[in-house]
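thought: fold this chain, then report.
action: predict
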Amino acid sequence: MDDEAATLPAGEQYDLAKVGAHWQQELERGQRYFKSWVDRCTKIEKIYLQQADQQSAKRRFPMLWANVSVLQPAVYARLPQPVVERRFKDSQPVARMASELVERNLAFAADDADLDSLMRAVRDDFLLCARGTVWLRYEADFEPLDIGVEPSNAPGADIGGSPAEQITDERVCMDYVHWSDFLHSPARRWKDVTWVARRVPMTDEEFDKRFPEGRASLAANGAGSNHGTNQTERAQNEGKTYVWEIWCKSENYTVWIAEGSPVALEVSEPPLKLARFFPCPRPAFGTLSTSSLIPVPDYVYYQGQCDEIDVLTKRINKLTDQLRLKVFYPSGDGSVSPAIEKAMRPDNDTVMVPIPEWAAFTDKGGSNAIVTLPIDQVQKVIVACIEVRKQLVEDVYQITGISDIVRGDTQASETATAQRIKSQWGSIRIRDRQAELARFARDIVNLAGEIICDQFQPETLMLVSGIQLPTAAQKQQVEMQMQQQQMAQQQAAMRAQQMGQPAPPPQPPQLPPEMQKMMEQPTIDEVVQLLRNDSVRGFRIDIETDSTIEPDEDAEKQRRMEFVQMVGSFMQQAGVIAQQTPVLVPVMVETLLFAARGFRAGRQLENTLEQVGAQLSQSATAPKPPPEPTPEQMINLKAAQVKAGAEEKKAQLSVAQAQIEHQTTVEQARSDMAAQALQQFQQQPPAYQ
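observation:
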């Protein structure tokens, strides 16, 4: 493409005429590339629908229809079940909740888009034409946002600006694309494809709504109409405009152009930012070579046998028409000939036919006069043709891989082991087809999951999944309430200290059970941040193993029973070890979680097991209280307490007696000192002498 049409400075628009001319050439090149395949598939579809020759349809053996009918439920039988798992099975509440949200949204999107009918249509295209595909879109419904403020009419206000809008509903749309309406750039491998395109039929109303200014371009160029090659196509295309939607990875844009128009309707950036750019998965391919992406339908490999079967069927039908009783008798015998004709009429149920001229009849030889045409040789030829056709049918079964066990052909004398071995080897040739459709379903689910992660609003994620998560603001509000309670306790303790009273012991903030549960959950903001960030998206999207083929009715029960047996056996053994060695309880808890995460059925119990395991680990590592004393120890303890009380009283009495004696000694010393001082005073001479 021209550089000026491919890369433009910011703020400028694409030249629709140059872009349209370029992509008309590209579309024509792609149609020429697939022309032989499209012609072949058109013939195969007519054979499948018995439209090739309506006059001789009853003379054909519907081998293609029979094979496709047998393979349809064998390669795809039911809706795939999406599975979203953490890439690393660690204890990550945010990643676990994010995977649960995405998985439930994917399950709803598959039901809402009727993915089962899309997969069945792709399966039929895959079996008939060796290619089938689906196109994914994102749609959202908007309504004006009522912000409660009257519009301002002040000078300078942007009156012509678009009003604020909010999303009321959003969904992932999945569209089936007919094999003749899909094109891609010629390439040897899918990774080398640079653009994909699909042809979309639009009514006049849909076209005018999607391209308000595109009607003038159609009128000027006379493009967009496709009358079809037969009456059915003309009836389907009446009033429709065909528009090609093109996604070009090399130029990083999308183009809308009407079929046959030299001017593009719209050129814009891709509306979805997808990891692999294209809004469609790699098509479900049948037989491919390493030289190109043009598939080869399976019917090509046994078309010669089918033609021979049809020839034999026509021959058998013609010979069957000859299996009629043809009688030769002499004419001109009066009433004898009419009597013979009357007896040989197919509508004559009369057993006895009267012959007036019996003598003349016997003279001519009676019953010997009647000669029948021998048909035993015709019968032998028919039997031989049927045997040859049967061998050709077996050859077709060998070519297509439809074994006797798949067709339900078995023997009563075979053992169950023999039938199981035949079933395994009988389906080995269709496993590649089963795996291809399973891969295609997984790619669809991956694309839908990527759109959900990148586009869906938090409210939509919680509404569709039925999981209500707190916001960061709600958690912050609860934390502020807890801080206020702690501050109130601290203030009460300070007031008690100022008044000389003992401070009350600090208590943790009390929350209602629903508030505690809310605080344990991750916030929706953390979950959405994880989903939006491609670099840390730590989970993978897949579908359940064998979920697209006919399931075993007891498979789910068996998985649940295996999980219950595993948990029961582990708990029985772990209980003994926990009593003997409590230090190993955290190790056993992690071992149980490691085993439970490997079971699909144990995923719902993972959160509960983590909570219970944390409680068990905490109680096992907590210091144990002292053991309660025995009755003898209680008696000895009581006696020791009484003895200690008596000794204490004795000691108190001794201390009191010692204090009394000390007080007496002190008083005696004081009195002696007073008497001695008085005596000395009396012995002194008077001062006036």
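thought: worth noting. Residues 28 and 247 are 16 Å apart (CA to CA).
final: tokens above.
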